[in-house]
Amino acid sequence: MSAPAYAQPLALGPVRLRNRFVSAPMERNYCAPDGSMTDEYIAYLERRAAGGAALVFTEASYVRADGKGRIRQMGVDDDDRIPGIARLVDAVHAHGALVGVELNHGGRTAQGVVSGFVPVAPTPIPCAVVGGEMPEQLDDADIEHIIECFGEAAARCEQAGVDVISLHGGHGYLIHQFLSPAYNKRNDKWAEPTLFVNRVIDTVRAMAPGAALGLRFSAFEGVDGGLDTATTRERINAIDTGRLDFLDVSAGNYEAGQWIIQPGEWSRGLLAPHAAPYTRDFDLPVGVAGRISTPEVAEHIIASGQADFVSMARTLHADPEFPNRALAGTRYRPCIACNYCIDSLAAGPVPCSVNPWVGRELEQPAGPAPAPVRVAVIGGGPAGLSAARELAAAGHHVDLYDERGSLGGDFALASVLHEYPEYHRIVDWYLAELTDLDVVCHTGIKVDAHTLAAEDFDAIVLATGGTGPALDVPGVETRRVRDVREFLASGDPAPAAVTIFGADREAAAVADDLLQKGTQVVMIGPQETIAHDVGRRAKIVLLPRLAAAENFTAHLSSILVRLDADRAVISTNGREHTVSAPGELLVSQGIEPRTELLPALRALTPRFGVHSVGDASGDGGSIHAANITAADVAARITATAHTHVEVLA
């Protein structure tokens, strides 16, 4: 049997990839606030190199200070950056991978509040997505200076030992702004859309002659008046691609962010057909990004000739070992395309919903626990599954209990909703992991302290989640009332009509799912906006879909005052009025921790304590939070057991 296409080496100009998996230039915010390299960032990228990626890119890195768009974005704008980049190169090379740096200037997408400078652009058109600050129009001298900055940044990278340089010509950044008819309205020589990028290519080639050089671009922008596929092709035809070693195809811009980071409900590998014409017509290796989250999709893209390599961001963010595991045919931790990572960029370092050690590689325990102990985990939702897996992976003996007949908790319920088609993958992964790690799972059992006392566990982890608060509203007896989680757990078919009290993440997802099934949905929520607790990218296709739904009515900034059989009195900004409120009332008003077992469990005084995780600890609210608390508790139990053994010794 022949090796997979993604296992084959590939030449990119002067360098050679060991396989076709490329860790894409995902924004991560792991550098210091001044843009310099950190140990945390090196550890993150080193982990991806050790995981088998052939080429590991840093994030889009600014070549001049006014092009900085993120608070901890990597800078290549000063010679002081060289030693840090060199340390990164040494760490990645030690694992047999190549290092790439993507050179960038944010242009109109940069923010003065982040960079400390007024943003600049080919034409002064503000970017509302990042705050709408009006950029200054670049004059001829400043354009020439930025071109020089690209070249100087490339020279620094080459001096540090970087193997591959990519120019970011997509996603609405400065090079893309010159290319786009939507953002380049000039009437001087720089109105010619490819002049700027060709000058940058010339300068970078001259100042970093030894590095492989490529261009990343958006196959289309996805906005009215912007670059469509035909116009983009005209632009690429006019670019001096003969001086490049590869092309890398993506899509979108800031105003069409769903094409940059695609939602989970879109098809895997959806941009591959847009890369195929470039692969066919250009005598260059071509890469492609876009929801390439399984080995099967990667294999199809490469074997079918649609692209020569795959650029993977979120997939390797979730599991740095994905390439090694794909090559070995073993199980990998799946990305669920929730976009929590990208929605965290404005706040700081980017985490991962399904991998609690992303960005915390230096803290991750290594190797088995020196002193295995017996641990009971009560609750089989994300926090319980994560705690059980982390403990068992460390070598502990774990029993997992859940009162439901199957594991996965409320997250498994969410995985059946229209918005979350990838969520089931992480539940399935946990179940397979627990089987291989010999975790003893007891389902359909509601345990109490007496049950656990007979087993003499060394530690107990409470992961019982939470429950929705009781609804105390006059008229509540006039109809059936259930928490949204109770409704999903019932498996009842979609009703003809329903009223949802709440406008949070859960309410929005349930409303969207029911609308797809033909249900008339009325939403009454105290929130000012729908899904206020979800980041912009995570709801970028959801909100327009809700707004366009004919069977959907939303009353926001509204409190439920009284219920009747098919109507409700609500108070909107202090004004009471009656609205139609048909069908059953589903309540989505958050959850309260389930902690009734805690006193009795603590009375058992297990040697290494009783620990609450996830929603049961009050630190839940998302799968990321659940995973973090669970992983940290598992590490704490291991460390405590180790200390105990040392004391006895």
From TrEMBL:
Entry similarity comment: In the N-terminal section; belongs to the NADH:flavin oxidoreductase/NADH oxidase family.
SUPFAM superfamilies: FAD/NAD(P)-binding domain, FMN-linked oxidoreductases
CDD domains: OYE_like_FMN_family
Domain NADH:flavin oxidoreductase/NADH oxidase N-terminal: 8-327
PANTHER family according to UniProt: 2,4-DIENOYL-COA REDUCTASE, 2,4-DIENOYL-COA REDUCTASE [(2E)-ENOYL-COA-PRODUCING]
Coiled-coil regions, chain positions: none
Cofactor: FMN; [4Fe-4S] cluster
Pfam family, one: Pyr_redox_2
Alphabetized UniProt keyword annotations: Flavoprotein, FMN, Iron, Iron-sulfur, Metal-binding, Oxidoreductase
Presence of keyword Lipoprotein: no
Name of the molecule in the record: 2,4-dienoyl-CoA reductase
Transmembrane segments: none
Key word Chaperone present: no
Domain FAD/NAD(P)-binding: 374-598
